[in-house]
Fold this sequence. Notes:
The chain is mainly alpha-helical.
Amino acid sequence: MAVRIFCNSCLCEPRSPTPRFCLTNCGHVFCEVCLQKGKKDECLVCRRACRTLVLSKETSADIQSLFMPVDVLSKKYSKEISQVSEFQEKYRKRLLKHQKQKIAKLEESLKKVTQQIQQLQCCVLILNFLMTSVPSRKQNVYSSYSLHSSRPSTSETMEAMEIDPVPSPMRKLETPTGPTRLSVITPPQGGRMG
């Protein structure tokens, strides 16, 4: 059942022949007869300046909804609300799916970068180990040979060697004419004898 329309001034309802009813922008309804009695562009109830709109079947749906029963309105708007709700839910799901795919790609990239960082750290550790544990050959070569020092003399080298006075059974006996053969006991160190 629709909301009853009546004039806010004389309280008459639509009848046959029906006078036209008007709605003011301040929210009051008046019949055409009362509007003609009052001042032009002034509400008969609140005495404010107002504009009027004739109520008819051609009136906009928003204005007509003011006079519809609440249960009809609730059904109408619940259907619209459910459509809007379904649309928004689908929209959210699409957005969520997109964000999940984006996150998966970022996680994969992060995993690859983490693996690369770990590989680089291993390389750095190996290089550090090699640099600290293996002495530099350049250092040893250059430290053993000084630019200003001369090579040790033969007598200095002989003094640093240990001589085995007892001949080895595996060695040939020396001839009396040749020089005495020396046996080296200390192994060479740093590329030099003695």
